[in-house]
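User: Predict the complex.
Assistant: Input components as received:
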Amino acid sequence: MNKNDFFDKVYDVVRQIPEGKVTSYGAIANYLGVKKSARLVGWAMNASHGDNSIPAHRVVNRVGLLTGKHHFGGTKIMQQLLENEGILIKENKILNLELYFWDPQNELPVL
DNA sequence: TCAGTGACTGACC
DNA sequence: GGGTCAGCCACTG
């Protein structure tokens, strides 16, 4: 697979995350069949800057930590966006993550 | 070409 | 239960 396909698929998955839901880099990587490369998903997010159609704030690490908030041009933007969708944040971490977790592997058709 | 870096994760101690 | 370490792959200088 070439990298453009990979990037496109990452973006495609992220775009399908419903409001009020979140997923993890690892979950996306796993869905795309490269579960050992969660870093690439983070990389894809990093490259998604400027694309407003990608709700990157709904992608967090596996424990619900907002590790990428600094890339939103501010430190509070990401938290605000999530709280705006009804997700509670405490100390840069999502509360009741299991309640909001959206697993692409369960919600999307198999590739 | 090589080495360093990163929005990560799982395994070990 | 928290701290470390080693894989993972693309990009940059």
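Chain A has one domain: 3-99.
Let me know if you want any component modeled separately.
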